[in-house]
Amino acid sequence: MMLLVRCPKCKNTMKYHTPDNILAGKRKKCVYCPSSFAVRPNLIKEI
Ligand SMILES: [Zn+2]
Fold first, then answer.
1. Residues that place a CB less than 5 A from ion ligand 1
2. In the chain, what percentage of residues exceed pLDDT 90?
């Protein structure tokens, strides 16, 4: 599953790939700023 997510800190969007459909507890490291964030509340859409 490929998702579009947005960093809550810098508001940049990026792709996030997950091999399964489980998003609970998943975090992504932002590629634009040195923070990481929870995927689920920052999910924009599936791509
Ligand atoms: Zn960021």
1. 7, 9-10, 30, 32-33
2. 94
Distance 42 CA to ligand 1 centre (A): 11
pTM to 2 decimals?
A: 0.89
- Sheet with 13-17, strands from edge to edge, namely 13-17, 2-6, 43-46
Residue-number span of the structural domain to which 36 is assigned:
2-46
Cα 31 to ligand 1 centroid, rounded to whole Å: 7
Spatial distance between the Cα atoms of 1 and 19, rounded to a whole number of angstroms: 6
Structural domains in the chain (count): 1
Query: What are the tens digits of pLDDT across the range 24-44?
Result: 999 999 999 999 999 999 999
